[in-house]
Amino acid sequence: MATQELEEKLQSYLGYLDQDKNNVNLLLSVSDCYRQLGDWVSAQHYLDEGQQLSGQQFWTHQGFLYMDSNQMLLAKEAFKQAITAEDTPVNRYNYSLCLYINYEFEGALAVLNSVENSQLLPACVRLKATLYHHFQRIDEAIMLLKQFLIHHESDAEAAGLLALLYFDNNNEEQAELFSNKTLALNSANYEGRLVKILLKTLRNEVTLAEIESLLAIKPQDGRLLFALGTTHIRLMNFPAAEQAFFQTSQIWPYFYENWISYGWCHLLQNNIDKAEKAYQQAAAIDANNADGWGGLALVSALRGHIPQAAALLEKTHALDSDCFLAAITQIIIANHSDPEQAAKLLNATLPEVAAEINNMISRAILRLNADEKIIH
């Protein structure tokens, strides 16, 4: 509701209240208007008056007031009391949502699990699917939303979430289908637009403008920032790619492929020290993946530390004999006595480097949900 409309509504309620000062419903309505206008003090004042007159606590109203004023621990307790007073699907949703916002995901799911799926409100179904997504229970989330959409086919939010779930389940066909359905229902739906961009990134069809328009809505979306970095690297804008990968690392510090991409970005700018740090991070996250060790082997070879590079190369090949970073390292080791020849051979592999980065980017985007991430 627009601010002006809210203010007009408030003045109307206050006028009625002047004529009926002991009307509890009017006091609650005035409190809600003040809450929506961001006047927490006045909202609490009228809520307290209503509670005093009625001799009861209005926990749901109190919970919303605490939530809107960013007092999340108090909001959680208020919504918990609301369920104790009256155990309804609405109160369970409010309590679960508050737990979710407080990062208490197991508790949030437990609150919803005590209600049959058929009795869940649409908002509850979407929240439950989001929680399943967080816990990597993607098949259950997909089934829940598919069943829900049979009777709520016009719910764009549910369709958009389903598109994202299909994408994370590596089902590009269904992801595209539901992304299109979502955007047909609501062209501004965030998840529908996100999936469309991720699919276009996979196909090397996305534009910077498309990514940046969605980042304007959610600047901290790690998926979009990673897609932005990969797009910049494809366009050979390595400083911009570096910045995007750095931002991604701040949001998802354990996303392995981001560190590998970050390392490539530094290598392509001839920044060996930063590349080494990126590959060290990757190897620490997943010691059983070859790319991190291959990157460290390449760094050692570029520094002329051949024995160390050879040892790291052996470790890399034990994990993956086809690691591309290791293949470049072999070129350098084989020609370490002739740096000029090694440089020529390395330059000759640049087209392959571009192709490999392209393949790596596609693999990385498909693994965007491999790590446990919070979905907002």
If you had to describe this structure to a student in words, what would you say it looks like?
This protein is mostly helical. The protein has a domain at 224-366: Tetratricopeptide repeat domain (Serine Threonine Protein Phosphatase 5, Tetratricopeptide repeat, Alpha Horseshoe). Helix content is 76%, strand content 0%. The chain has helices spanning 3-19, 24-36, 40-54, 59-68, 72-85, 89-101, 105-113, 122-134, 138-151, 156-168, 172-185, 190-202, 208-215, 222-234, 238-251, 256-267, 272-285, 290-302, 306-319, 324-334, 339-348, 350-366. It is elongated, with a radius of gyration of 27 Å.
Summarize the structure.
This protein has 376 residues and is mainly alpha-helical. It has a domain at 224-366: Alpha Horseshoe (Serine Threonine Protein Phosphatase 5, Tetratricopeptide repeat), CATH 1.25.40.
Largest sheet: none
Oligomer: single chain
What form results from the Cα inertia axes? elongated
Backbone CA Rg: 27 Å
CATH class of the domain at 224-366: Mainly Alpha
Structural class: mainly alpha
CATH topology of the domain at 224-366: Serine Threonine Protein Phosphatase 5, Tetratricopeptide repeat
Q: Detail the poorly predicted runs.
A: 370-376
| Number of continuous helical runs | 22
| Strand count | 0
